[in-house]
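Summary for the funding panel

The consortium committed to producing paired sequence-structure records for every protein in the target list. Below we show the first two records in order, beginning with the earlier of the two.
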Amino acid sequence: MEHWQLQEAKNRFSEIVNKALQEGPQVVTRRGKKTVVILSVEQYQRLVKPTVNIVDFFQKSPLRDVDLDLTRKKDSSREVNV
């Protein structure tokens, strides 16, 4: 990954975006510290994509066989003073 100082990144933003698309993530530093990474949308989506779909997640849950009581109580509602 190439590193860019913030001021240089501001001045050459288009170039950095092109490099991120062609070569991969670009690191921007501020005061000598790594601050942000510029990367393509495709790379970002791979990072945030869930590794397991929701159905598989629940099927593999250790609580899968727990018997839950989902019946609704028939009690009357409480009075509210307005």
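The next record, for a separate protein in the list, is shown here:
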Amino acid sequence: MNPPPALPLPLGLYIHLPWCIRKCPYCDFNSHHSPAVLPEQAYLSALLAELARYEAAYSYRPLESIFFGGGTPSLFSAGFVQQVLDTVAGRWNLAGDIEITLEANPGTVEAGKFLGFRQAGVNRLSIGIQSFDAISLVRLGRIHGREQALSAVDTAISAGFSNFNLDLMFGLPGQSLRQGLADLDTALSLSPPHLSWYQLTLEPNTLFHKYPPQLPEDEAIWFLQQDGLARLAQAGYEQYEVSAHARDGFRSRHNLNYWQFGDYIGIGAGAHGKLTDPATGIITRTRTIRHPEHYLACSEQQPERLIQTEEVPVAQRTAEFLMNHLRLRQGFDLNRYQARTGLPESMLEPGLAACIANGLLEREGSGIRCTSRGWNFLDDVLQRFL
């Protein structure tokens, strides 16, 4: 029997909107080419029916965050988002300072739509810029150009968003050190409260993986990363996670909940969730049917087959906890490990001793975090606990 957590874990809600105008060649997310007319009402009904299945067991727990991800959520109307949020607010307990994020593509931005999202209750945007360079944007298969990217930020600010994130990649095909830093400098000139700056990787089941582009040499990427990190720090951004940089008070609460092994409900085609039974401490992973057409059909005809569940084995909990927590600059506290996994500290001791001895982890009281060397070799750290 797993000991139950002392208190219910923080709870988030992830809503997956799976359609895009075009599938990017590097993207391994569950996204699909959008039809001429989005089935907003059918998808709304399916989402709310799916959410209702969690209501009796979890609606008493305050929702700390809501995240509309994709796909391209900004393809949907503000009215759709309004109906989702109104339903959630009417049936669920919401934290007073709840963070509500919506992902947006600069190629699908309209001033009226951003204002509508804000009026619907969205209080944070995550804008997928990826690059400000025209050639890089074409190589990445993006549907927007430099001016649209710049305009999207102005539009967000004009619509009343004081909290927003910019997604930016480096190590792009044909990208030089100068070009990579120019992208970053342009992003910094826009003063985003949060910046996700991450290296392009060739993920399985993507076009780039099947037909790999010519990427910069590892050494060139290393120098770009080091120079970029220095510029981010000088500009007042805290690197609180491997790829996440924020001004004071603007960390992503929804993503932090993932990284800190909190609970979240995932609804929509291909959405994943993680839930802890407060009575038993049993941790369950959920996943929903991936393809949007199958999702809609199943929701209407065979709703009992919509969601698959799987209990997280005790032997796997340590790896899952560390895989996320060690991405954070601050690491984790041993008390949190026990509270969120239901496992004793002794489960960690052999791996901790080896990593500390090899300069990969450091310990201060009950706090554990990666050293600079360990952060650069996270896979090696995790291997010590598998």
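Regarding this second record: The chain has a mean pLDDT of 94. Residues 40-58 form the longest helix (19 residues).
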